[in-house]
Design brief:
elongated, alpha/beta, 5 strands, 6 helices
Amino acid sequence: LGALLAMIFAGAIGGLLWWMLHPPQPIPVEVARARRSIDAAKRILVPTIGSSYSERGVELACGLGKDQEAEILLTYVLEVPRTLPLNAPVPEAESKAKEALERAAAIVAQHKLLSSTFIERAREAGEGIIRAARDNKVDLIVIGIRPDAGGGYDVIGRTTSSILHRAHCEVVSDRAGNGGG
């Protein structure tokens, strides 16, 4: 029995020494920084309009936020024409917004993540998204981009361009390939 215990002890010490002398490969600083950046996203804003590409953005946000159990903030920016007051009732648009937010919230619920939905009123969508991100102190904005957007420099559109230039936080954009979305 003593010999058996001595062999187990020697094997454990040998394994410990081997483990100590073979540390894992260090990862580059850039990789660690990128990983920490995504892990820090606890509040993710996703603008939606109820289209397949914006719902794909919701799905992407859920994938990015799953490990850290992020809160997904879903917003529909209701663009109010300059000829109307910002708080003017627009029942048809408000109904469309509620339906889009309900579908987006259902996607988040499938991932068992916490979500909040709200309608943001603005003159331009980009302006509303930036304000919503700032007011809600989000760490990340995820945007689904229309897959049939024009070629060349016009791929992202005015709204996405505005968000990319003015956002105070990280922005992830997703444009489905020709077969996706």
